[in-house]
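Researcher: We're teaching a course module on how sequence relates to structure. For the next exercise, students receive a sequence and then see the predicted structure as tokens, so they can try to spot secondary structure elements on their own. Here is the exercise chain.
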Amino acid sequence: MWSGRWWHAVQDRLPDGASVAPVIIASDKTQLTQFSASKSAYPVYLTLGNIPRAMRRKPGQHACILIGYLSVDKVLFHESLRIILEPLKQAGRTGVEITGGDGLVHLVFPIIACYVADYPEQCLATCSKYGTCPKCKARADQLVEVQQFARRMQSWTTSVINEANTNTNSNAAFRQHCMLQDVAGGVFEPFWLDFPLCDIHLAITSDVLHQLYQGVFKHIVEWCQELMDEEELDRRIKALPPCYGVRHFHNGWSGMGQIGGKERKHMARVLLGCLIGKVPRGVIQAYCSLLDFI
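Model: And here is the predicted structure for the students to work with:
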């Protein structure tokens, strides 16, 4: 995370000698029971971007902590999360003195940097209308268009909600006013209001499993099958030499049944080597860019 532009932009706005602690929030709807009237909740986790990714992902390191189970109700979700994260507001404005491992006292500013969730939770957290993009202002019927749209800003979403609060006198009218501008109309006061140096739309990251490996990469494989038939693609995959840390697909890909995220991750590691010498250079460059993004 420290190689990104966000970190440098926030660091420049802090006092000299201060350090930023990027706060990463994650949530995922979880089924609590297996009965007919099963109950669900949103477990919410917190970790810091200062911790290396390899350490954050290991449960044994306890670098990611559970901070609450929230209701699946939209209003209660925002109300509860605002209460849980309330201490971060003042800490983000004035900083917190923390003693580091070297024994020195550092002034640290915890700033909400990332909100990790799948698409339904992305819309819930950002108050975006379901079916639209939580990052830009593209409407639902414009998502397939190859063009850039204006980026959603937290200030813009807040202004839409405030305008609906001022100009409507019922919940139904409030919801309709917001939905016409692709803003979810079920929340009157989002949890992310008044957090320093935070933009919830900028904090949303791609869902690695569903949006990248099960989404973007799945389309990449389908494009490969249009560039060459399945038999040739399987032949090239089977001909790749074994390599440490990389799965060798002895039977190719066409015979695989249900493919999960782990399998697609291994497939992404070997795909490019199967295309060399078969597709034009421009296609290779396009695939390189997409795989680097993933």
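Model: If you want an answer key for the exercise: The chain has a mean pLDDT of 87. The radius of gyration is 23 Å.
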